[in-house]
């Protein structure tokens, strides 16, 4: 006799259920529902001011959404529980301008851990900063600073990348670099939420989309 077994849906990496955010009682966005699984890339789309950066800040624990649920691996998302597992690259790149890229990367590894089989020199070369590792960050161009921030993504073992306008300030090879890094991250079972006002030339198939509106 054949035994029928119902498929049990796997717990998503990240799930939002009826998530809403208000400022001074004015809605910024929501209710928002989405799920993100390992090996998936999702684009967050919306007009200026629709709440994309706000959502990213909520996901990193910098802001709190009073309404709705946010689950990380099936449990309420708390910053302490996902330190090192979620990394945010926003408009502020999180680099100390007096330190060199190499020193900044050492700090990042010290705070968030070190991904296996990676080293700083190889990663600097990968992002096009070979020869700039020992320059203070303040002497780098905007695009070079962005590349130094992208290098951090490669060195720490985070599963979820939150990238807010990752293509800003990058030239054509930099844009290709972001697309390649995303494709590799997704292929090794990582996940990414990405905002962009430009077209995203992601190589790993058609991404999911979240549309933000108040
Ligand atoms: N620090 C703040 N204090 C008060 N209101 C803010 C603050 N930051 C953002 N807002 C407001 O929250 C709303 C959402 O802003 P947010 O930066 O999340 O939008 P966004 O979709 O990322 O916009 P953009 O596409 O322009 O980057 C906007 O109306 C904005 O004015």
TrEMBL record:
SMART domains: AAA. One of its GO terms (molecular function) is transmembrane transporter activity. Residues 14-212 form the ABC transporter domain. Keywords: ATP-binding, Cytochrome c-type biogenesis, Membrane, Nucleotide-binding, Translocase, Transport. The keyword Ligase does not apply. GO terms for biological process: cytochrome complex assembly. Gene3D superfamilies: P-loop containing nucleotide triphosphate hydrolases (3.40.50.300). It comes from the Bacteria. Pfam families: ABC_tran. PROSITE patterns: ABC_TRANSPORTER_1, ABC_TRANSPORTER_2. The keyword Transferase does not apply. This is Heme exporter protein A. It comes from Rhodanobacter glycinis.
